UniProtKB/TrEMBL annotation:
Entry superkingdom: Bacteria
Protein family per UniProt: Belongs to the universal stress protein A family.
Limits of the UspA domain: 78-146
Matching Gene3D superfamilies: HUPs
Pfam families, per database record: Usp (PF00582)
InterPro entries reported for this sequence: Rossmann-like_a/b/a_fold, UspA
PANTHER family membership: STRESS RESPONSE PROTEIN NHAX, UNIVERSAL STRESS PROTEIN UP12
This protein's name: Universal stress protein
Length: 307
């Protein structure tokens, strides 16, 4: 019993330090939006500027390509329509390979959040080869927000879903989810605990085995709920006053299950841990966040501690 107390204290101090860093220090001070001159440019800029305002961040707009008078007039004309005129905005023009330029800019300009427009459904070829968004998500040094449904007029964010899987980075992801929920004025936040089906190693053959599987499921659910409740104790009360917080255990394949859940409940934002470094085998046999990236259910915030 005595040896368990220091361990518990260690975890409490660890979670407190994470939440202190997020809530006392603004996590997203500088936002970068990489833009192209596509038909959706205006909507993306308006949405990105709106998000930056709510996060209290300054916004950098970066175009990877040559600067012309026509392009400059177009982007400045769009900026004249943003809602929040006090937002600090700068426009940058750089040449080179888009992936590398964005990666270098995030690193050298101390970017906290990279925002990208994304296709909601990638085809099979893109999945194996990898889109710009996918490559950046894997390799960038900061958090990434993938937008699939930007709007010219503000659509309030009502429901945020965040992963609650057992991982050392999960407290950080949950703390960021609370911060963003508060900043965007969301009314509900659901923490989804994905439990792998293989943890229920019971073959259902009769009533006895069915009962055994049911009991095991309940125990696993209680275990996950207990772990998440410990994390929630570190959330500042001011962030809980007008936010309905719910925990939801789901059984299934990680990544696929939470993506499906976010789609079913029509979440406005899904928050996930950043993916681990992946190799060739991970692309052939996808897992976790790869399922979400190939079929985005909603806007996706991938949280990463800045490196």
């Amino acid at each position: 019993m005595t040896s368990a107390v220091p361990l518990f204290v260690h975890y409490v101090l660890y979670w407190r330090s994470i939440f202190k860093d997020v809530f006392l220090n603004q996590p997203f001070k500088t936002v970068l939006f990489g833009f192209a001159f596509s038909p959706s440019l205006k909507i993306n800029v308006l949405e990105t500027s709106r998000i930056s305002h709510f996060l209290g961040a300054k916004l950098i707009l970066l175009h990877v390509g040559s600067k012309t008078e026509k392009k400059a007039r177009q982007i400045h004309e769009i900026l004249s329509h943003i809602e929040h005129k006090d937002l600090e905005v700068s426009v940058q023009w750089k040449t080179g390979k888009p992936n590398q330029v964005l990666l270098d800019t995030c690193q050298n300009s101390a970017i906290d959040l990279l925002i990208l427009g994304a296709l909601q459904h990638e085809n099979l070829y893109q999945f194996y080869v990898g889109s710009i968004a996918r490559k950046l998500t894997r390799n960038v040094c900061c958090s990434v927000l993938l937008l699939i449904k930007p709007s010219e007029e503000r659509v309030p964010c009502k429901h945020v879903v965040v992963n609650g899987l057992e991982d050392e980075e999960t407290p950080f992801a949950i703390s960021n989810a609370f911060y963003v929920s508060h900043a965007l004025g969301a009314k509900q936040l659901t923490i989804v605990e994905e439990i792998r089906q293989k943890e229920i190693a019971v073959d259902i053959e009769d009533d006895k085995s069915l009962k055994r599987a049911t009991i095991l499921k309940e125990r696993l659910k209680n275990r996950e709920d207990s772990r998440v409740r410990k994390i929630l104790k570190s959330i500042p009360k001011t962030y809980l006053n007008e936010l309905k917080v719910k925990t939801q255990s789901i059984f299934g394949k990680r990544g696929y299950s939470i993506g499906h859940y976010a789609e079913v409940v029509r979440a406005d934002l899904l928050v996930m841990n950043a993916p681990k470094k992946t190799g060739v085998l991970d692309r052939i046999f996808p897992h976790d966040i790869e399922y979400i990236l190939s079929d985005l259910p909603t806007d996706l915030l991938i949280v990463r501690k800045r490196t």
